[in-house]
Specification:
- The chain is α/β, with parallel strands linked by helices.
- The protein has 8 helices and 5 strands.
- The protein has a 5-stranded mixed sheet, covered by helices on one side.
- A hairpin with a 6-residue loop joins β4 and β5.
- It starts with 6 loop residues before the first helix and ends in a 12-residue tail after the last helix.
Length: about 170
């Protein structure tokens, strides 16, 4: 259905901006099928936040014997997966494993526990900044984005440049 409708027309009609999946317990095979069926034609951008140490998703993987899209294992980045990322502009994959607090507790609540991850999600929703403008760094081989040292300073500068009238009480610690 809608195969003869352009992506821009679909997005204009549905008005889905940024869809964000954080620590998502969706089966990778099912997600792959949705990608093949055209799910990436719907939102302006679909962002997946993944972690190497999400114990809750590890239990789901154990229980169902299937990988979850919220889990990140660099060895899983096969050539076809990388090629898919290269050709699906609306899809952004972010590995949170270098963000402060990503592995606290059982590693599943990094959106709440990591100031970097929560700030990144909010900057995406509030300002529609692309990953590079937010200060994330993309791995040239895997095409996955990561949090570099000094991320909060870069994000703070991007927000300040976009909204110069914002006068924060203090800037983040470097």
């Amino acid at each position: 259905m809608n195969h003869d409708v352009s992506n821009d027309d679909i997005r204009r009609k549905l008005r889905l901006g940024n869809v964000i999946l954080v620590a998502s317990d969706v089966d990778r095979g099912i997600f792959g099928t949705h990608v093949l069926d055209g799910v990436l034609r719907l939102p302006h951008r679909l962002t997946l936040y993944m972690s190497t140490k999400d114990k809750a998703l590890g239990m789901a993987r154990f229980a169902f014997s299937r990988e979850r899209i919220g889990q990140f294992h660099p060895e899983d980045m096969s050539a076809p997966v990388r090629e898919s990322l290269r050709h699906h502009d609306p899809l952004t994959v972010i590995n949170v494993s270098s963000a402060e607090g990503f592995d606290s507790g059982n590693g599943h609540s990094y959106f709440r526990d990591s100031p970097e991850v929560s700030s990144d999600v909010l900057a995406t929703l509030l300002y529609d900044f692309p990953p590079a403008e937010r200060g994330l760094v993309q791995d040239a081989e895997s095409l996955v984005w990561t949090f570099p040292p000094g991320y909060m300073t870069t994000l703070f500068a991007a927000v300040s440049n976009a909204w110069p009238k914002l006068e924060p009480r203090s800037s983040p610690a470097p």
